[in-house]
Write a structure and sequence with these properties.
By secondary structure, the protein is an alpha/beta fold. It has 2 domains: 138 residues, Rossmann fold (3-Layer(aba) Sandwich); 30 residues, no CATH class. The protein contains 8 helices and 6 strands; from the N terminus they run E-H-E-H-E-H-H-E-H-E-H-E-H-H. Strands 1-4-3-2-5-6 form a 6-stranded parallel beta sheet. The longest helix is centred in the first third of the chain and has 13 residues. It starts with a strand and ends in a 5-residue tail after the last helix. The model has no long low-confidence stretch (mean pLDDT 89).
């Protein structure tokens, strides 16, 4: 089971792991509603090294990136769920719209992003590659998307039958 840590604590722990010859893998995202696409991507990321760091956008950062209706789950809960995954060693929260500053401090051996990000769009690419690391794009699992899950939920709630079932009786 992983640990939710502050950025300063992460830097100390990662430095120790690097001194012990371990390869650090870093990925990031909002992880608002965890789904199999996320867990499979995290497992693939973990397989690329010895230590997996997952950086998540803070609640304020998610609102900047995704809009005022997000996140659905607060940062503390998103972090706790991610830390409970076997593939994840450390979870850290960042406030900025992107984790560029954090990536520059961690300098992982491997930076991983989903295949929906083009090579030139991957934040932290320059920092990681200039330090001798590599950037890996993991193909997305087809059919999995937080946005698609939210669309299905909204569609279900707009159906009168679904609303009546919520109240425990048909309309």
């Amino acid at each position: 089971m992983g640990h939710v840590v502050s950025q300063d604590e992460l830097i100390l722990r990662v430095a120790e792991r690097k001194r012990n010859g371990q390869r650090v893998v870093f990925t990031n995202g909002c992880f608002d509603l965890l789904h199999p696409g996320h867990t499979r991507c995290l497992e693939e990321a973990r397989a690329l090294g010895d230590v997996l760091v997952v950086a998540i956008n803070s609640d304020a950062s998610v609102r900047q990136v995704k809009g005022p209706a997000r996140p659905l789950m607060p940062q503390s809960e998103r972090a706790e769920i991610l830390a409970a995954l076997a593939a994840v060693d450390y979870v850290v929260i960042f406030e900025e719209p992107t984790p560029r500053q954090l990536i520059a401090r961690v300098l992982p051996g491997v930076l991983v992003k989903g295949g929906d990000w083009g090579p030139e769009e991957i934040v932290g690419r320059e920092e990681v590659e200039s330090a001798g690391g590599r950037v890996v794009s993991v193909p997305l699992e087809p059919g999995y998307s937080t946005t698609r899950i939210l669309e299905r939920i909204r569609a279900a709630w707009s159906c009168p039958q679904e609303r009546s079932l919520k109240n425990g009786h048909p309309e």
